[in-house]
Amino acid sequence: MAYSDKVVDHYQNPRNVGSMDAALKNVGTGIVGAPECGDVMKLQIKVDENDRIVDAKFKTFGCGSAIASSSLATEWVKGRTLDEAMQLKNTEIVTELALPPVKIHCSVLAEDAVRAAIADVKKKKGQTQPAAAAVAANG
Amino acid sequence: MKSVYLDNNATTPVDPRVLDAMLPYFRENFGNAASRNHRYGWVAEEAVDKAREQVAKVINASSKEIIWTSGSTEGNNTAILGVAHMYVDKGKHLITCRIEHKAVIDPCKFLETQGYEVTWLEPDPTGRVSAEQVKQAMRDDTILVSLMFANNEVGTIHPIAEIGALCKQREIIFHTDATQAFGKVPIDVEAMGIDLLSVSAHKIYGPKGVGALYVRRKRPRVRLQPLIHGGGHERGMRSGTLNVPGIVGCGTAAQVAMNDMPTESVRIAGLRDRLWAGLSEHLTEISRNGNPQHCLPNTLNVSFLYVEGESLMMGFSDIAVSSGSACTSASLEPSYVLKGLGLGDDLAHSSIRFSLGRFTTEEEIDYTIKEVVKAVNHLRHMSPLYEMAQQGIDLSKVVWQHH
């Protein structure tokens, strides 16, 4: 199975690889997947006071399509508000990266990671508890 | 560097010497080996007999004991189903192992649906079953033990001679799928008590679509009910016009492999060890799967922790290897062989099989080490698992969100 040029590009030059301090109140962290399934994505977003995503980072254990899906997702959510980012659909990732049917789950995982990160930051903003607890529960 | 082929357990290129030997049998010597009344037939038959001799010699058999097949899948099916049907009056119990090739597993599973009982032995963490395990599993109604000589994914070699001796004592037929071992390590059907043995030409620099099944003729005379009927070729065990060019290729490939084995096995094992040493020197947290003592000289299976196998292969796209990762197959299940060794799914997903061959060079191995190290570091840099492990988090204790 050959990879699309865009998947190869994201694999070779992944955008926004890295980590942010998950304890920060304006940082949301989503960790989805499991090592046994061959895919784990960690996606983080940083929001400003208007709930606009000013930065995004990812780290992914998984196949090339999983890496590309999460890399693309970080690119796309930057600059969006949380509500706008919630609208991100896995099918858009599938189209952009020309993923074959067997790799659609990679795009689903990226969508889930975005949503988990959004949920995390929303929860933190609504609560006064230190954020580390949520991350520890996630792993 | 041109592309590097390290997937010789999947298939091998045809050796030029083999191809040269085959070509006349496509051209002027095109006869049917079953034509008894003219020169075309005689020439073809003579070539087939010579090839039979060449294959037999590699395993210390008689040429009369070699049946031509289309390859090991057919050989394994013929052996397992053929014995099961022929000896059904003696019993309906078979013994095999969980990490056999599918060409053994599936016919055994088929027999289970036909009222046969199969004992599926569990290998040790290196992929080996012991003679004691086989002994414990033997029953009065056991008619066949089928165990591969060497495993295709990790290269582990079973204690074949000990198991063969046990089978002789109990008068149970012993089949071994020698697809990966034939021509790579010494095999002696007499000394090892082997009754049936499957071979495939394309694993030993011969053509695809041809192979051989050794069927013992004396002490005991093994009988098989054929799968393919029609004409009674090959002592009635496998009908069908013989693939003469393919058979000539199989015979020549066997002879070349046997002649080269003493030097070639040492050379390849040296390259394999060089590869492992190079990877170990430059990378931490890698582990070797299989049995370092009882192993094919050409096979190295490695788990690169915190890195997924398919993405790793993408990192060195000009090097052909294979992975136990689920992502390389449509099934999304990681390698059942590695899981059968007790490896966690995560380690199975992180595994790469390097299988070296006759045309592998030292330069290619050095290039492979460099490229693999580069790709592993690239991927670990973006692996959340590597990051967690570096932070001292025990990954086995994390509650993951399964999909």
Key traits:
heterodimer; A: 139 residues; alpha+beta; Sufe protein. Chain: A; three-stranded antiparallel beta sheet; globular; disordered C terminus; B: 403 residues; alpha/beta; Aspartate Aminotransferase, domain 2; Aspartate Aminotransferase, domain 1; 2 domains; seven-stranded mixed beta sheet; four-stranded antiparallel beta sheet; 38% helix; 14% strand
Q: What's the topology here?
A:
The complex is a heterodimer of chains A (139) and B (403).
Chain A: H1 5-12, E1 27-34, E2 39-47, E3 53-61, H2 64-77, H3 82-86, H4 90-97, H5 104-126, H6 132-138
Antiparallel strand pairs in A: 1-2, 2-3
Chain B: E1 4-5, H1 16-22, H2 39-58, E2 66-69, H3 72-86, E3 93-97, H4 102-113, E4 117-121, H5 131-137, E5 142-146, H6 160-170, E6 173-177, E7 196-200, E8 211-215, H7 244-282, E9 286-289, E10 299-304, H8 309-315, E11 319-320, E12 322-323, H9 336-340, H10 345-349, E13 351-355, H11 362-381, H12 384-390
Parallel strand pairs in B: 1-11, 3-4, 3-5, 5-6, 6-7
Antiparallel strand pairs in B: 2-8, 7-8, 9-10, 10-13, 12-13
Task: Write structural notes for this entry.
The complex is a heterodimer of chains A (139) and B (403). With 139 residues, chain A is of the alpha+beta class. In chain A, 47% of the residues lie in helices and 19% in strands. Chain A has one domain: Sufe protein. Chain: A (Alpha-Beta Complex). Chain A is built from six helices and three strands; from the N terminus they run H-E-E-E-H-H-H-H-H. Chain A has a three-stranded antiparallel beta sheet with strand order 1-2-3. In chain A, helix 1 packs across helix 2, helix 2 crosses helix 5 and helix 4 packs across helix 5. Chain B has two domains: 242 residues, Type I PLP-dependent aspartate aminotransferase-like (Major domain) (Aspartate Aminotransferase, domain 2, 3-Layer(aba) Sandwich), CATH 3.40.640.10; 131 residues, Aspartate Aminotransferase, domain 1, CATH 3.90.1150. In chain B, the strands form three sheets. Chain B has a seven-stranded mixed beta sheet with strand order 2-8-7-6-5-3-4, sandwiched between helices. Chain B has a four-stranded antiparallel beta sheet with strand order 9-10-13-12. The mean pLDDT of chain B is 95.
